[in-house]
Amino acid sequence: MTLEPFLLEILVCPSCHAALRESGEAEQPELICTGADCGLVYPVRDGIPVLLVDEARRPA
Known about the structure:
- The chain is of the alpha+beta class.
- Helices cover about 10% and strands about 25% of the residues.
- It has 1 helix and 4 strands.
């Protein structure tokens, strides 16, 4: 999965408002918060980022 570059430029973490980056995994695509204190990982389902804090997970 690859999101459009312009979309990644405007998407931010709903918790801390830091930029997001793609995980690089093709099996389970995710968006990872780049904020040093946050780091939440948001799922991407059917090509649609689910940017809900309740749906995010903490990195392992």
